[in-house]
């Protein structure tokens, strides 16, 4: 990336936090307030986070297991058939050379067996014996071949997805200790917003109330329809009352709009009335600069958070990926998400001394990022055609061929983008 001359942007008091620094600060705040572990049945853990390392209760496999259908034999052939062992059964030992038992894939190999002969490579003699040549490579899985009892397979902080659930089941677990999913609420600020029908006559349609809950669920939050409130009246008492009510139930309250200091922007005074302290108050990023994250302590002593999302829709989503995602990772006890990288297929402008998060579509085969159109902070068309944001560092521009970090848009819990 090449350096460009830093432009002069408006600066609020206090100075906005560096974008990368802000991510670290909110993640640390989340870790410090990490939610308590709970025990859940396996089927209810998808999208949660491991609170304990995942370890097998026995060796995997727990016993010698046939890899094929065929014959477990002892000694040289031909062999006399003395029984059968199916999956789920316990095999009697083979005690005499020249004997065999029919065996199914997944069945326990009997003690004393010297080989497993594949059924398709066996034949019957006129005397009813089994004959054939076992392969040199053993046709069974040995105990502990995949893992040994007590071995750490996945660390604390691993996101539970269907693959993890399957592994836990194979390890013999019926329940897992996981971090409780954060409860979220959303407050919509703005008297100018319509909640139904087309925009017009000076009023715009609220696009964040219907959309933000889906993003929060993809980050692992629990948010119900009743947890979305608004539009909240543009008065300070209404803002304070709405925040108090939401914080009684939620670990995280997201608000939309009101993050600046205009005549009807009441979020900052409302946070002051709640004795909240700022983790981050504005971030040097474009779009999305007037985002914030504040922290409160409830009467029960539990730390709760308020994420102030700008009113412009794309800016609000940038606040989600910049502040809310790292916070939720911390609350779940997960590490700060590591950003993947991609190569710019087209140039991307810088934003002076601010980080620029530029909407891009990813070609995952080629590993390239392609800027999309319609990317104004009030627009959603570009967002609907994008996979994430290319990170253009302060004081630089993105040139074709530059390898830059990508902030991916969230997928459903457990889905993997790369």
Q: What percent of residues adopt helix (DSSP H or I)? A: 10-25%
List how many beta strands DSSP finds.
Answer: 28
- The number of distinct helices, counting runs of at least 4 residues, comes to 7
CATH class of the largest domain: Alpha Beta
Shape: elongated
- Roughly what is the average pLDDT, rounded to an integer? 90
Description of the molecule:
The chain is α/β, with parallel strands linked by helices and 418 residues long. It folds into four domains: 9-39 and 181-331, MoaB/Mog-like domain (Molybdenum Cofactor Biosythetic Enzyme, Chain A), CATH 3.40.980; 40-58 and 146-179, Molybdopterin biosynthesis moea protein, domain 2 (Alpha-Beta Complex), CATH 3.90.105; 65-141, Molybdopterin biosynthesis moeA protein, domain 3, CATH 2.170.190.11; 341-408, Beta-clip. The protein has seven helices and 28 strands. The chain has helices at residues 19-32, 162-170, 208-218, 236-247, 267-273, 313-331, 381-384, and strands spanning 2-3, 17-18, 37-41, 49-50, 65-66, 70-74, 80-85, 99-103, 115-118, 122-124, 130-132, 140-141, 175-179, 184-189, 193-194, 204-205, 228-232, 252-256, 277-281, 283-286, 292-297, 303-309, 341-344, 355-363, 368-371, 388-392, 396-397, 403-408. Helix 4 packs across helix 5. The longest helix is centred in the last third of the chain and has 19 residues, at 313-331. It is an enzyme of class 2 (transferase). InterPro entries: MoaB/Mog-like_dom_sf, MoaB/Mog_dom, MoeA-like, MoeA_C_domain_IV, MoeA_C_domain_IV_sf, MoeA_linker/N, MoeA_linker/N_sf. Residues 185-330 form the MoaB/Mog domain. Pathway: Cofactor biosynthesis; molybdopterin biosynthesis.
